[in-house]
Amino acid sequence: MRCYLDLLQQILEHGEEVPTGAFLPSQNRQPHALTILGAQFRHDLATGFPAVTTKKFYFESMVKEILWFLRGETNTETLGCGIWDQWAGKDGRPEGECGPIYGATWRHWNYLTPGCPLMSVGGAFDQVTHLVEDLKAVAADPYNRARRRIILTGWNPPLVPLMGLPPCHTLAQFLPTNGRLNCHCFWRSIDAPVGMPFNIGQYAFLTHLFAGVAGLKPGVLVASVTDLHIYDNQHDMVREQLSRAPLPHPQLEIDPEVWQRAPDFTVEQVRSLTPEMFRLKGYSSYGPLRCEVAV
Q1: Rg of the chain (C-alpha set)
Q2: 49 and which of 122, 252, 272, 288 could share a cystine (Cβ 3.0–4.6 Å)?
Q3: Does 183 have pLDDT greater than 90?
Q4: 224, 186 in Cβ contact below 8 A?
Q5: What pLDDT is recorded for position 123?
Q6: Cα–Cα distance measured from residue 183 to residue 200, given in angstroms and rounded to the nearest whole number
Q7: pLDDT tens readout for residues 42-75
Q8: Which residue, among 51, 86, 39, 63, has the nearest Cα to 200 in the 3D structure?
Q9: Rounded distance, CA 75 to CA 60, Å?
């Protein structure tokens, strides 16, 4: 994760200070942030899973969130952890409801979750099902024109105002090359100390999953970020993290039963998967680093 640590250092040394629309509840204020434009992270998944080691990485929560998205769900009652609690049930939405966030856009494009005042137009569209179909088609025929068109997007413009939190990771393109599946994801805005390690893990995990269903090996993960920032209440935490030497990458282990239960990764098949089917082998890290999350 040296690339990630270098980005933290770059923000501290060269970031531009800007006001933000985020809010720190305990301090009753909107923090400033140091930000850089157009940052990029790159990691070859063949060298190991990019779990941050200079602080604790909450792998189980990450898996629970991705499976929640892949089930097409948007209510925190079925999530299994509290990472979306601060955005749930707000702005007139039912208790626990986050609005048409990732799960809705990935699996039910144009579907509106309960409490949303807009009408759905044109029915629901399952992006993940079509993505998996295209991956398998390209794996069977490398000349298939879908190879450079395998895209998953969470940004549905008319529904953004109805989301508890507009998508930070807005789009991912999956590109098969010579038996490996690469992923290039685009993030509009990421909190580098807290959000970025989690999102890196998510797209590394998704790349492993989609590679597996298509009979491919995981390839290179690239993330391009428009606004990569550190909030003003995070500086001490970041300096502590930068003082720690990174430890070796772990390996992602996936039970073979996953591919038997979910050969096409339909919503119904994903419901049969559990977080216990996924493990990080050889993961060790320094202790956790905590700060208040700006919302």
Answers
A1: 19
A2: 252
A3: yes
A4: yes
A5: 62
A6: 11
A7: 999 999 999 999 999 999 999 999 999 999 999 9
A8: 51
A9: 18
User: pLDDT confidence of 294, banded at 50, 70, 90?
Assistant: confident
Q: What is the DSSP string of the chain?
A: -HHHHHHHHHHHHHPEEEE-S--BTTTTBPPEEEEEEEEEEEEEGGG------SS---HHHHHHHHHHHHTT--BGGGTSSSTTGGGTT-TTPPTTB--S-HHHHHHSBT---TT--SPP-S--B-HHHHHHHHHHHHHH-TT-GGGG--EEE---GGGGGGSSS--SEEEEEEEEETTEEEEEEEEEEEETTTHHHHHHHHHHHHHHHHHHHTT-EEEEEEEEEEEEEEETTSHHHHHHHHTSPPPPP-EEEE-THHHHH-SS--HHHHTT--GGGEEEET---------PPP-
Residue 119 has pLDDT above 80, yes or no: no
CB 194 within 8 Å of CB 293: yes
Biggest distance spanned by C-alpha atoms of the chain = 57
The domain locations on the chain are 2-281
> Of the candidates 61, 108, 47, 69, which has an alpha carbon nearest to the alpha carbon of residue 252?
47
Residue 133 corresponds to which amino acid? E
**Residue 122 pLDDT exceeds 60:** no
Rounded Cα gap, residues 165 and 85, in angstroms: 11
Whether residue 64 contacts residue 39, with contact meaning beta carbons closer than 8 Å, is answered with no
Per CATH, the number for 2-281 is 3.30.572.10
State yes or no: pLDDT of 121 exceeds 80: no
Residues annotated as part of the active site: 168
The residue with greater pLDDT, 224 or 115, is 224
